[in-house]
């Protein structure tokens, strides 16, 4: 138990303030915004100096003279500051504690400020602060990057929950973990039976030397044990939405995740889906979502969630047969195609200890193989491939539970020379997603696409195989001679026209691959070509036929 008076006397015995200790008179009041800036600055400085905490003290002047403070002169409003500060800081980090004491009869307030977590500089209202000597300043770029770079080696999941014991873990969850571990290590089944619970937790790399880790709480902790992870959040939210994106139902699940993954799975309405393939007269009846895909996607969210961001994992189920999984944090491998093509474990993980524990318990495959298997399952069912949306602070994966275009999917799957990677890229083309230069190069080398980036469309040979000849023509467009003939025909009929008239005539006839600006530029180029050929000319803003063209 911290003796706050002893702590205060230690501070006063030093000769000066420093980067992690700040005195303020605050005799009657103190600006709330400035309080938040000091919180950010002192937290970041504690990180940079390798300290465990920082302190802001009210009621004492810079010269160490005690003057007392009337700031928030009741304990309730003082403690409410924790929530008020959390509303404006990174990951809702707030004071570790706020102490009120008296020195020589004068009231003193001590704010205990946590150190910024490794890799996570603390912002106040979106701005980062530090200190230059005694001055409050924006955190400079060099210091910001020093903190951010720490995340490269930091593993939150291996950290010890100092006050947690095995009693804070669910017996049912431990039993389930044992069952899964035996399935993974069947040759050791008899030996595993002789292990007590803590021995098992150590050997399965969930705990470390009898110490309870963040991983242990996430996977096996009782629901009431979630507080050990604070300010991190351990929560999965399932949401059901109708076809109009209106929320119809929801439920929250916390630890132990090893059990609650099954409960989330049970909430998903995995209805049967009937469809007829083009090569048979008999319908196939399958689950809308393959059970493996649901569990793999959800467990991947658990393994790769950035728990320090204070967000939750979400599973949104749409009634029109679509699932969207999302977790906080950027995608570590950076490129989903690389994961699939390499088909090998990634060299780096956000939660290395947690991911390894989940592999040991047979909850996830090694990174790469599990994701690749999801794509193969969808491909073999002729369902749309999983779609990853990689944002700055989150990852979303969408799983369709129905066929969008059975003819296209089946024909594409029948092309013998296509690799899974090429099918994935063609799937992106069909969905209208922009490919990068390397992806374009891959598809063009196989003559699977045409056009120039970003205006890419399937090639004629793909269109032929997939019975999309009409769509190909729409994307490819018609020879310029056709559009020139329409312009000449228009002027023969109406004698003159402005540029806007030609745009009205041609915009809906130009290839769909072009956006409106590109279509207007093409019309402009066609008009200029006709003028250079001596077929049309201008009078003011009007276009007319050249004398040689008039009939």
Please tell me about this protein's structure:
By secondary structure, the chain is α+β, with helices and mostly antiparallel strands. It is built from 22 helices and 20 strands. It has five domains: 4-152, Methyltransferase, Cobalt-precorrin-4 Transmethylase, Domain 2, CATH 3.30.950; 166-229, no CATH class; 235-402 and 409-414, Heat Shock Protein 90 (2-Layer Sandwich), CATH 3.30.565; 415-476, no CATH class; 480-545, Arc Repressor Mutant, subunit A, CATH 1.10.10. α10 (257-267) packs across α11, α11 (291-304) packs antiparallel against α14 and α21 (499-506) packs across α22. The longest helix has 17 residues, at 32-48. The protein is flat and about 105 Å long. It starts with a helix and ends in a 6-residue tail after the last strand. The model has no long low-confidence stretch (mean pLDDT 83).
The helix tally amounts to: 22
Number of extended strands:
20
Would you tell me the structural class of the helices and strands?
alpha+beta
Strand order of the largest sheet: 9-8-12-13-15-14
* End-to-end CA span: 103 Å
Morphology: flat
Helix content: 25-40%
What is Rg? Answer: 32 Å
Biggest β-sheet description: 6 strands, mixed
In percent, how much strand structure appears in the residues? 15-25%
Question: What number of domains?
Answer: 5
Q: Just name the CATH architecture of the largest domain.
A: 2-Layer Sandwich
Low-confidence stretches: none
> What is the CATH topology classification name of the largest domain?
Heat Shock Protein 90
CATH class of the largest domain: Alpha Beta
Average per-residue pLDDT, rounded, comes to 83
Identify the quaternary structure here: single chain
């Amino acid at each position: 138990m911290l003796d706050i008076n002893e702590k205060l006397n230690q501070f006063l015995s030093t000769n000066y303030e420093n980067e992690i200790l700040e005195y303020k008179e605050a005799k009657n009041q103190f600006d709330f915004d400035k309080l938040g800036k000091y919180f950010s600055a002192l937290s970041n400085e504690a990180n940079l100096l390798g300290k465990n905490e920082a302190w802001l003290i009210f009621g004492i002047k810079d010269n160490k003279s005690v003057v007392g403070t009337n700031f928030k002169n009741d304990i309730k409003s003082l403690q409410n500051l924790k929530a008020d500060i959390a509303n404006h800081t990174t990951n809702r980090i707030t004071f570790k504690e706020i102490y009120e004491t008296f020195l020589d009869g004068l009231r003193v307030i001590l704010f205990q400020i946590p150190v910024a977590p490794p890799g996570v500089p603390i912002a106040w209202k979106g701005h980062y602060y530090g200190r230059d000597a005694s001055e409050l300043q924006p955190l400079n770029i060099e210091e910001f990057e020093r903190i951010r770079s720490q995340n490269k080696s930091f593993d939150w999941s291996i950290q010890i929950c100092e006050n947690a014991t095995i009693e804070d873990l669910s017996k049912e969850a431990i039993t389930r973990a044992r069952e899964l571990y035996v399935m993974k290590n069947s040759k050791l089944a008899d030996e595993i039976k002789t292990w007590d619970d803590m021995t098992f937790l150590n050997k399965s790399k969930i705990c470390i030397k009898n110490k309870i880790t963040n991983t242990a709480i996430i996977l096996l902790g009782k629901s009431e044990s979630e507080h050990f992870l604070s300010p991190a959040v351990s929560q999965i939210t399932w949401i059901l939405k109708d076809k109009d994106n209106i929320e119809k139902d929801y439920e929250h699940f916390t630890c132990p995740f090893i059990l609650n993954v099954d409960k989330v799975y049970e909430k998903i309405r995995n209805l049967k889906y009937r469809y007829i393939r083009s090569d048979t007269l008999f319908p196939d009846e399958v689950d809308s979502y393959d059970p493996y895909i649901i569990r793999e996607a959800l467990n991947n969210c658990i393994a790769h969630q950035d728990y320090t961001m204070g967000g939750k994992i979400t599973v949104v189920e749409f009634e029109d047969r679509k699932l969207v999984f999302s977790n906080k944090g950027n995608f570590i491998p950076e490129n989903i195609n690389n994961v699939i093509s390499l088909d090998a474990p990634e060299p780096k993980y956000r939660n290395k200890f947690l991911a390894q524990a989940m592999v040991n318990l047979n909850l996830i495959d090694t990174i790469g193989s599990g994701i690749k298997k999801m794509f193969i399952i969808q491909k073999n069912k002729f369902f749309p491939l999983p779609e990853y949306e990689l944002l700055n602070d989150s990852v979303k994966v969408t799983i369709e539970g129905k066929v969008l275009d059975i003819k296209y999917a089946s024909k594409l799957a029948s092309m013998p020379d296509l690799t899974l990677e090429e099918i994935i890229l063609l799937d992106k083309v069909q969905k209208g997603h922009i490919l990068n230069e390397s992806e374009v190069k891959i598809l063009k080398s196989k003559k699977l696409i045409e056009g120039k980036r970003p205006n890419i469309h399937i090639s004629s040979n793909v269109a032929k195989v997939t019975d999309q000849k009409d769509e190909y023509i729409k994307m490819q467009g018609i020879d310029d001679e056709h559009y020139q003939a329409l312009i000449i025909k228009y002027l023969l009929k109406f004698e003159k026209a402005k540029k806007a008239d030609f745009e009205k005539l041609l915009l809906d006839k130009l290839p769909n691959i072009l956006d409106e600006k590109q279509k207007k530029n093409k019309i402009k180029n066609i008009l200029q070509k006709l003028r250079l050929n001596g077929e049309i000319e201008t009078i003011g803003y009007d276009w007319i036929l050249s004398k040689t063209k008039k009939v």
